[in-house]
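[step 3/7] fold_predict: job queued, chain A
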Amino acid sequence: MQPKQEELYEHLRVDQGISEVWATSLIRRKDKFLRWLKKNGKPTDPAEVKKLDIREYFDMMKTDLAPQTVRKRLTALRKWFRFHDEEKMDQMRFSIPKQGRVERPYYSPEEANCVWRTARKMGKQELALVSVNLGMGLRNIEAWRLKWKHIDLKERVMEITGKNKERENVIPKRVNENLREWKEEQTERFGKCDYVFVKEVVRNKGAEPGDHVKRPDTLTDWLNKILDKAEVETRDGFRAGRRRFGRDLYKATGFEIRSVSQYFGHSDPRETLKYLQLDEFDQREKIDQLDEMLENLHYPERKKEMVETPVKMKAGPEEEKRAVSVQPNQPL
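[step 4/7] structure written:
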């Protein structure tokens, strides 16, 4: 960290009692604001930033980002401006729109297949990265923390460290094979490594090939390069692949939402429902399958009888009397 960054970090940790993770997150969001200023040719010095009106930045965020992200960015800027100047807080009183149903992108089946093919051509590590995202629905932070000791390739079980708790998931066969191939290549090139995803090319001094990547966002950058080469337009980091996998798993389990929720590590199935964004097509498909299941359960022979035998009309009372009075050898 720079000297001013260290002072801000100490201010957040000691003076305001903010946790280490939250303080680091606030500084990272503040840095995104400074990068935006630099990109648009505006001064980035705190003394000069005090004179700027950040409404342009706020309007840009409202257009491009979700309301929840806007709130987090503004919280970071409030902390930063309070650290430098109390008067700047007057500009921070913006109205943030309420967050309703937000349509989140996910890969179409065609896009997903294209991503798989492109990753296979690019290399074993890229294929392993796509495998844990599109093939298991891992978040970038979960993929970043993943170590080989967490993976049992023989039993096809993976220990995943999520946001709040750890969970064990079964590894699909294709993903298991891709991870096995990458582990063999990684060991051959870099020796024994602890982490699954490592640096292949080193640009900073003091680092070596095979070292663990520093930030989870690095994996997102790798994924974006794969999407660029695959010419896929859908972009939402690891979340787009996670939603694609969740929808496929939801259909594969017979529309059992609790199975998907458990696999994703969600504490509440309602969070999974919101995450998958089930549309009318999915609901119609569920109802059609339910109709077919009930038809086979309660009337298993109805469909067969209707196809093989013609419909018989019920005889009236006169025909029944006549049938009873006729003897076997008696002409009609």
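[step 5/7] annotate
The two ends are 108 Å apart (CA to CA).
Residues 3-92 form one domain.
exit 0
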